């Protein structure tokens, strides 16, 4: 056996603090714009961001926390939250972003499970925090992210962020440590059972930032102005707080105002070119623009993911001159796994065929590998037809949940819980969440396909398709519809019209057995349709017994 010959390149660890210090050094004019709870628009440069992140690191150092201690946040997208992202991870602590839209019992569970030492919170969550304090006595400090003059009085001991960092000089060197150390923590918002933590490392975060910026990924560059609508408490805003600084793009943080008119105003006033969010957010933006006959002047690309992007939404964005980039991922994947981008060989296909490819969830970005398997873990053909359980692996894919005693992997692969097919060109298409698939007479019906068709009907605001028990077929699809506000047809007329709308768009036996109308489709804390709740609500819905 000969001696191994190592390369002779520098062994610099991939650390999150490098992203910030590199941006401050090479893109010093880079602007970070935030809509603040104080009511104004705040602007500063990445150099200011670094000074304040370092002040925060110094203030935290005074508390003598152990390396790897968890520091929680309950906050919207804003510059102080960004300072926490960099200041906490950069100093060897773990930035634990908590989703404030969860039930307070779940939040308390998450804070206890993570053993957060300090929680930073936006003032809009003060009453939530006051309820959490007695449940989480181990938390040493609760620090409010607001100008000190605007602090609301409280009977409980709350600290102020500006006061916490004001004495510090900002003269601080980011420590160098092993890139595999933990940097941040995010809990999955599972609809059943307790939330589970995905613990990211510096290495996984930096690699994900590189990979997600590639041309066939989100294609980010120093010419972009990036507005993450996806919250910084949902899988690190899909990595954009890191990747935007990595490429040197201006960052616009929308705060708590995520309604259509407020987002539109920022897109226009800050000359945004790129944004990202779940489909439900965009439905609100498009509706408010249609009402006022508005157009975009700079907005060019939008990443839609988190749940399937309805083709009708893609078309509408295209009509506004905005390219929809459909992406798939999950908390356990940091989150991006696949992105729907055309290959050179796709360019000779018809526009319709190209649209069908862009509606899929896409191709893996290098670093992630994927396969589909049957119930016995046999790998299935990548022929675009066979569908099975989607498994992934790669350096930004979780191998174990935080504090879990066992690996999360099966055979070295992470089981995503999604059901999909993969075509010979590597374009992957999710047909369902495994628990949402409708099993009719031994065959599977894709609830996502049916929802996509229904969402294209002019009177439909949102559509959820769920399985209902059926005496002959085991399960059959029931369509739950939230109507657009101005629909004139009666429910019976609309139901007949929607069912008619399915003819020639899906196989006859896939057409839902019935349609029901609800005022609002319930959404999860991350803006996804709560199908579990709908299944419970309609479990006894009578279906025609054909
Ligand atoms: P989360 O961890 O909350 O981000 O949820 C991840 C899950 O969201 C995935 O396992 C999918 O079921 C779903 N998901 C994410 N992106 C998409 C997409 N583009 N199309 C369909 N489902 C998606």
Describe it:
With 546 residues, the protein is an alpha/beta fold. The chain folds into two domains: 16-369, Rossmann fold (3-Layer(aba) Sandwich); 436-537, GMP Synthetase, Chain A, domain 3. The protein is built from 16 helices and 25 strands. Strands 2-1-11-10-12-13-14-15-16 form a nine-stranded mixed β-sheet, sandwiched between helices. The protein has a seven-stranded mixed β-sheet with strand order 7-6-5-3-4-8-9, with helices on both faces. A hairpin with a 2-residue loop joins strand 21 and strand 22 (443-445). Bound molecules: adenosine monophosphate.
Keywords:
single chain, 546 residues, alpha/beta, Rossmann fold, GMP Synthetase, Chain A, domain 3, 2 domains, nine-stranded mixed β-sheet, seven-stranded mixed β-sheet, 16 helices, 23% strand, binds adenosine monophosphate
Instruction: Give the CATH class of the largest domain.
Output: Alpha Beta
Question: What structural class do the secondary elements suggest?
Answer: alpha/beta
Q: What number of structural domains do the residues give?
A: 2
The biggest beta sheet is recorded as: 9 strands, mixed
């Amino acid at each position: 056996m000969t001696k191994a010959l190592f390369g002779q390149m520098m062994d610099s660890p991939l650390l999150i603090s490098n992203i910030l210090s590199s941006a401050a050094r090479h893109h010093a004019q880079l602007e970070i714009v935030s809509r603040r709870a104080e009511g104004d628009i705040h602007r500063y440069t990445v150099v200011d961001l670094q000074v304040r992140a370092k002040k925060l690191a110094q203030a935290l150092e005074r508390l003598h926390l152990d390396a790897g201690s968890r520091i929680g946040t309950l906050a919207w997208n804003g510059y102080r939250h960004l300072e926490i992202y960099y200041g906490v991870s950069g100093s060897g602590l773990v930035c634990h972003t908590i989703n404030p839209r969860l039930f307070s019992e779940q939040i308390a569970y998450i804070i206890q499970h993570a053993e957060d030492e300090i929680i930073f919170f936006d003032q809009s969550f003060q009453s939530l925090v006051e309820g959490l304090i007695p449940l989480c006595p181990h938390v040493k400090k609760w620090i409010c992210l607001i100008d000190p003059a605007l602090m609301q009085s409280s009977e409980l001991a709350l600290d102020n962020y500006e006061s916490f960092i004001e004495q510090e000089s900002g003269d601080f060197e980011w420590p160098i440590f092993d890139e595999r150390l933990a940097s941040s923590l995010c809990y999955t918002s599972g609809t059943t059972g307790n939330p589970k933590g995905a613990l990211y490392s510096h290495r996984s975060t930096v690699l994900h930032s590189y990979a997600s910026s590639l041309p066939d990924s989100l294609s980010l560059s120093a010419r972009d102005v990036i507005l993450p609508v996806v919250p910084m408490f949902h899988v690190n805003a899909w990595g954009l707080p890191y990747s935007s600084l990595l490429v040197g793009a201006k960052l616009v943080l929308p705060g708590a105002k995520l309604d259509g008119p407020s987002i539109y105003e920022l897109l226009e006033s800050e000359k945004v070119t790129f944004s990202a969010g779940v489909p439900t957010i965009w439905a609100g933006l498009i509706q408010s623009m249609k009402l006022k006959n508005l157009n975009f002047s700079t907005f060019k690309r939008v990443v839609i993911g988190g749940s399937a992007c309805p083709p009708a939404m893609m078309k509408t964005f295209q009509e506004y001159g905005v390219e929809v980039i459909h992406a798939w991922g999950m908390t356990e994947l940091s989150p991006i796994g696949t992105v729907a981008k055309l290959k050179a060989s796709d360019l000779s296909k018809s526009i319709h065929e190209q649209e069908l490819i862009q509606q899929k969830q896409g191709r893996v970005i290098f670093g992630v590998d994927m396969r589909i398997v049957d119930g016995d873990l046999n790998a299935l053909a990548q022929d675009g037809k066979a569908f099975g359980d989607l498994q992934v692996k790669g350096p930004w894919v979780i191998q174990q949940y935080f504090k879990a005693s066992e690996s999360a992997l099966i055979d070295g692969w992470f089981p995503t819980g999604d059901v999909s097919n993969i075509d010979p060109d590597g374009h992957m298409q999710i047909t369902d969440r495994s628990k949402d698939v409708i099993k009719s007479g031994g065959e599977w019906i894709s609830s996502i396909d049916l929802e996509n068709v229904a969402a294209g009907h002019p009177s439909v605001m949102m559509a959820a398709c769920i399985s209902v028990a059926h005496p002959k077929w085991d399960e059959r699809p029931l369509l739950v519809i939230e109507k657009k506000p101005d629909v004139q047809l009666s429910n019976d007329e609309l139901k007949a019209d929607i069912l008619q709308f399915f003819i020639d768009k899906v196989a006859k036996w896939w057409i839902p057995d019935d349609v029901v109308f609800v005022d609002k489709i319930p959404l999860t804390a991350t803006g996804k349709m709560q199908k579990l709740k709908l299944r419970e609500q309609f479990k006894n819905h009578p279906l025609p017994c054909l």
